[in-house]
Amino acid sequence: MEKLAIEGGPKAKTTPNVPMYPGGLEIGETEKREVMEVLDRKYLFRYYGPKEYPSKVTELEKRFSERLTSKYALAVNSCTSALISSLVAVGAGPGSEVIVPGYTFFASCAAVIAAKAVPVICEVDDTLTIDPTDIEKKINKNTKAVIAVHMRGASCDMDSITKICKKRGIKLIEDVAQACGGSYKGKKLGTFGDTGCFSFQYHKIITAGEGGMCLTDNKRLYDRLMAYHDTAACWRPDRFGMPRYEGEIFCGVNFRMSELTGAVMLAQFNRLDGLLSKMRKNKKRIKDRIKRLKNIIFRRFNDEKGDTAISLIFYLDHKEKVKPFVEALKAEGIDAGGIFDKSIPDWHIYAHWKHIMDKVTPTEEGCPYTCSYHKGKPVEYREDMCPKTLDYLSRSVHLDVPAQLTDEDCDMIAKGILKVAGRLLQ
Ligand SMILES: Cc1ncc(COP(=O)(O)O)c(C=O)c1O
To answer: Would residue 186 count as lying in a domain?
Structure first.
């Protein structure tokens, strides 16, 4: 048997690692052209400039809503902003509890606090997305919304989640930050919930460095999203007119998207299909070559066809095996990692959200945890409150699947996994 690289043997992968910036690495002439057009026109603000031009942001919204089949799209400056606006739009605020998965980027949880509601942390299952059975257990009369996060590119169990939310009269917000373009049973992610929230931060599939989008099919929610993200100022047909219906105008914030971001995103949006098909091809190529391995279990999918394929994740049977396995892969030249290790901070796992665990709030009175509108038992947090989540995450081996991998890269990655597994997982 070939000597492992960690023991001084030859590396399985000899090509350089490709960083995981799928859209970012493709930035080129079309992005430059779009941005230069905005600059040449001196039309940097969506609603006006020295001369009138069609807005890039409006064009992006139009394309997004058409392509992702949603009635309304609203561009914002981040997914966190999209989540906060969505929470406000659905009426989650003081007194509300919002259920979020214990495995997501911390922003999904921070958005709840920013909206003055209390996050309730929920288990994920072996799909690494929110566990519908645990959602049901966590619902009480304070529950206003669930944030379903399509984590690491793959969909939540949307049949079960939409059913639960409908039955219990709870709003559903989808966090599609990591799964733009993904689908569940043929329907695009972001179109199941009351709203769907996207990120264009630099690490995401398509990117402008920062940026976000909200989708909804509900006109009232769209009005509320519009009002909140734009201090209720610019969007109405008559900017200075009286409210057209009760509650139409309320104070919001400024989460607007700039025309420069809109320009980059127009070019990036055209790249989405190409990026998805490359990542899917690469992932399949690696997976096909390692699927005969007996001692690993692949992450389960709610709908593998709709997976965006940004990551390849499998479980080992014991968490103690992950560190040596990953170190051996790294020595082989493969950019792999574990997901949860108590000693390694990571903002994607609830047990590391110290400021949530300790209920640290920006102001002294402790809002939202001390809110008098919250009835019944206060929400409590403990690092071991979601044992199933920690078990799956601590047994996970994770690999990014960049769109820019060559077939040769994929074959070498598969070869390295087979080699290391052949030695360490017997
Ligand atoms: C699952 C998830 N939700 C929300 C966010 C927040 O996105 P943004 O940085 O655009 O606010 C991220 C970004 O990393 C994310 O991964």
So the answer is: yes
Residue 188 is predicted with a pLDDT of: 98
Q: What residue ranges line ligand 1, CB within 6 angstroms?
A: 78-80, 104-105, 107-108, 149, 175, 177-178, 199, 201, 212
Of all protein residues, the one whose alpha carbon is nearest to atom 14 of ligand 1 is 105
- Helices 322-331 and 407-424 cross at an angle (nearest 10°) of 140
Number of structural domains (the chain) is 1
CB distance 161 to 146 below 8 Å = yes
CA distance 397 to 109: 24
Of 79, 257, 398, best ligand 1 pocket probe by most atoms within 8 Å of the beta carbon: 79
The CATH number assigned to the domain holding 217 equals 3.40.640.10
- Please tell me the residue having the least CA distance from ligand 1 atom 7: 79
Residue range(s) defining the domain that contains residue 219: 29-271
Measured between alpha carbons, how far is 36 from 183 in angstroms, rounded to an integer? Answer: 34
- pLDDT averages per 10-residue partition of the chain, 426 residues: 93 97 98 98 94 96 97 98 98 98 97 98 98 98 98 98 98 98 98 98 98 97 94 75 86 96 98 98 98 96 98 97 98 97 93 96 93 94 98 98 98 98 92
